[in-house]
TrEMBL record:
Signal peptide limits: 1-28
Span of domain Calcineurin-like phosphoesterase: 50-226
Regions that span the bilayer: none
DNA damage in keyword set: no
Keywords of this entry: Hydrolase, Metal-binding, Signal
Name of the protein in its database record: Metallophosphoesterase
CDD domains assigned to the protein according to its UniProt record, in alphabetical order: MPP_YkuE_C (cd07385)
Pfam families the record matches: Metallophos (PF00149)
Keyword Ribonucleoprotein: no
PANTHER family: PHOSPHODIESTERASE YAEI, TRANSMEMBRANE PROTEIN WITH METALLOPHOSPHOESTERASE DOMAIN-RELATED
Length: 291
């Protein structure tokens, strides 16, 4: 279920020298430095400007602690977003109890229109839907654990939109769908209350993009980490997508030519390093579409 694995990375690097470069200090340093990337786009149906911050793939628990999340939250708050969206894989270890340190940091996010998130595939490992080295064995009561964590995120001011949506303004609707790999995504249910409003859809996995309806104005995704390990002239060593490099990162198009942004994410999956793939807090300045 990991984005990359050490064996696959080293095999792709194809040599001890390159392997040492990628797994040494340079790769570790790149893993914990991050930037803020800013984009300006029109959003059909929007009647007034909107600033959205998108944070995805925090992966709290395995290689990421509260200090990293604190830095991401501080950077986000400095951007003064109207809304903050979380793109899934907030969690990456077994959660017998709610992650208080993570939730305390997320509760510091400041956005007048609110903070909303979706679940990703690693979140389901944290619920106990499947087992693994950081999750322990699968647990039969994973739906109850998911419900418990949804309540904890909501109490921290970051409700999870699992096949649901919210009208944040008269001209704006935000929808979120369940994880494509381990959940039961229902796009129609998520969009049920959108009406004629401008629509933002959050899906953890970009492989849902070819199946989205035309009325979605902009989709935000994570999951790929941009490949996490990229090489000059080659690109990503591996991308966890059935479409290969097509949805690895950045601006892409889904069905009907609808724009989508696939973030490189913030945390780490599989291996504790990155190469040529800086973590990012994404800030979107969305404007009314001309005409």
């Amino acid at each position: 279920m990991s984005t990359v694995t050490r064996r696959r990375v080293l095999r792709a690097l194809g040599g001890a020298g390159l392997g040492m470069l990628a797994t040494g200090g340079a790769g570790a340093a790149q893993a914990y430095r991050f930037g803020v990337t800013r984009h300006t786009r029109p959003l059909p149906g929007l009647r007034a400007p909107l600033r959205v911050a998108f944070l995805t793939d925090l992966h709290y628990g395995l290689y990421i602690g509260a200090g990293s999340v604190r830095a991401w939250v501080d950077a986000t708050n400095r951007e003064r977003p109207d809304a903050v969206l979380l793109g899934g894989d907030q969690l990456d270890r077994r959660m017998d109890e709610a992650p208080g340190a993570l939730l305390d940091e997320l509760a510091r996010l400041r956005a007048p229109l609110g903070v909303y998130g979706v679940w990703g595939n690693h979140d389901y490992g944290s619920f106990g839907f499947y087992g693994g080295r950081q999750y322990g064995p699968p647990r039969a009561d994973w739906p109850a654990k998911r419900a418990e964590l949804e309540a904890a995120f909501a109490a921290a001011g970051a409700p999870i939109l699992r096949n649901a949506g919210r009208a944040l303004r008269d001209d704006l609707y935000v929808a979120g769908v369940d994880d494509l790999w381990n959940g039961e995504p229902d796009v129609q249910a998520a969009l049920a209350g959108a009406g004629e409003r401008a629509t933002l859809l959050v899906t953890h996995n970009p492989d849902l993009l070819p199946f989205l309806p035309r009325r979605v104005g902009l989709t935000l995704c994570g999951h790929t980490h941009g490949g996490q390990v990229r090489l000059p002239w080659v690109g990503a060593v591996t991308v966890p997508s059935r479409y290969g490099q097509r949805f690895a990162m950045g601006w892409v198009e889904g069905a009907h030519g609808t724009p989508a942004y696939v973030s490189r994410g913030l945390g780490l999956s599989g291996v504790p390093f990155r190469n040529l793939c800086e973590p990012e807090v994404v800030v979107l300045d969305l404007k009314p579409a001309p005409g």
